[in-house]
Amino acid sequence: MIGKADRQMSFSDYWLLGKISEVSYYHRLRTWVFNNLNEEMFQPLFSYYGRESISPVYTFTAMLIQFEKGYSDREMEEESRFDDRIKYALTAPRDFDGIDAVTLCDHRKRLFNSEIGKEIFIKTISQAKEVGLFNKDNLHIIDSFMIWGSCARQDTYTMIYQGIKMVLRFMKFYEMEDASKKILKRTDYEENIKKPKIAWENEKEKAKLLEELVKDALSLVENIKTKKDIKDDLKKAIELLERVALQDVEITNDGHVKMIEGTAKDRIISVVDDEMRHGRKTSSKLSDGYKAEIITGGEKGSVVVGIEVDGANIADGEHMSDLIEQSRRNGVDIDKLYGDCAYSDFEEIEKRKEEGTDFCIRVPEATNPSGGFSKEEFKIDLEKGTVECPNGHIKQFDTEKTQKHEQVTVKFRAEECNDCPLKDQCTKSKKGRTINIHPYEKEIQEQREYQKTDEFKEDYAKRPNVERNISELTRHGGRKGRYRGKLKIRWQMIMVAINNNIKVIMKHISKICNRQIKKGEVCPKTA
C-alpha cells in the first residue's frame, strides 16, 4: 500500500529554512517537488491493501538526488538519515528516519516498467514552456553521447563458459539438471570460476578449449529445444547461449571449431548484459555500453525535449526521425534543428522540410583514404550527366537515376587511369578510379558551397550549446550506466533529463524573481 509524505513542519524544520541557500540544488529541488509531486501520481505502482510503504515522493526524489550527487543506494540511505540538506530536498521533516536501500531498490523496480518517469519528464517540458523558456532564443540541437556499461566486456571463452553456467542454473531451477549431465563433456561448470584454467599462452590448449565449449553449448541448446513448454526465461537463455557460441567461430566440414577473423556484426560483448555493445564516438574514443541521442530546446537549447538509448555500436543519427517525432509528442514543435555531420541524412531532411522544419546541418568534406584526389576534385555536372576527372577524362551517367534519388556509380576505365600521369595522386587501384554519385548529390553540393559562407558559420556557431548540456548530463548521472539492459538505461537517462530540466526551470524562475523584485512586483516562487 502506498505511503504518504509527512510534510508537517516542526520548530526544528523552521530553523533549517534559513540555513539552505535559495540558489542551491537542494532548495530548488525541494520547491519543485513540493509543488509537482504527490502520491496519487505513483498509485498505479501500489496496491490499495497491505502494509503501508514509505512515500514514493520521497523515493523518487531520492533517486533524482542519487543521479545528481552520484550516491549508491547505501550512501543514499545514510545521507537521507543524517544530512539535513537531503531531508530538506526530499520535503521530509528533520526527524525523518531515512530511506533504506532495500526500499529504494523495490520502488525503482516498480518504476522501470511504468510510464511514470516519462510522464514526469514531459511535465518538465510543459513547465519550461509555461515559464517562458521557449521564446525567440529557442534553439533545437540534436547530438549523442556514450554511456559506459555497468558490466565488463568478456572474451569469447568467458562468454560461452558463463552462458553455459547460466543455462544450467535455469535447468536446475526447473529440475532439468539430470539431463545436462549426460550431454556435457566438461565437468567444471559448477566451479566458482570465470573461465576454465588452462595455459593461455598455449595455442593448442586454447583451440581445444574453444572446441569443447562450443560443442557443449550447442549440445545443450539442441537438447533443450527438443523439450516441450520451455519457460520464457530458459528460452531466452538458450537463444543467448547459441548466439555467443557461434558469433566468433566457424565450424569446418570435418566438425572442427576455429576462431574467425574480424568482428561479427552487432556482436554481443557480455552475457551479463547482452544488450551492451562495443562502439566508438570518435576514432580515438572507444566505449563499451550504450549510446544516448538527445534533442534539446528552449533558451540556448538548455531543456532536454527528447531522448533515445541504443547500443554503443549504433551510428549517430540513427534515431533522428524518432527523436523529432518524440519531441512533437512531448509538445515541442521543431522549427529549426542544428546538428553535426552525423545528421546529414538528406532523405530525412527533405521529408522534414516539407513539414516545415528547417535544418542547420554540416555536411562532411569529401576525402580520399589513400590521400589522393578527393571526390571534390572531379567536376560533376548533374544536368548533363557527366563526371570529369582532374586530367580531363569525361564519363557519362544516367541522369534519370539521380533525379529519382538513386545512387549512381561512375567507373573510369583501367587503361585510362593506368596511363594517366596523375594516377599516383588519384588512385592505387589497378581497375581504375570509381566515383559514387550520392542520391542527394545536388543537395550535398549546395550545402558544401553554403558552408563556406559567413552566414552559415555564424548560424552553425549556435550548435556547440549542446555540448554544455551533454557535459551537465554526463557529470550528473548520464556517463555510466547503473543498470543492465536498454529499458533500464533509458529510464536512467530520463531521470537524468528530468533533473536537468528541473534545474533549468528553477534557475529561470529565479531570474524572473530577481527582475520582478527590482521592479517591486510579486515573485512567482513555484514552478
TrEMBL record:
Residues 389-505 form the Transposase DDE domain. Pfam families: DDE_Tnp_1_6 (PF13751), DUF772 (PF05598). InterPro entries: IS1182_transpos (IPR047629), Tnp_DDE_dom (IPR025668), Transposase_InsH_N (IPR008490). Transmembrane segments: none annotated. Residues 28-110 form the Transposase InsH N-terminal domain. This is IS1182 family transposase. It comes from Aceticella autotrophica. The lineage of its organism: Bacteria, Bacillati, Bacillota, Clostridia, Thermoanaerobacterales.
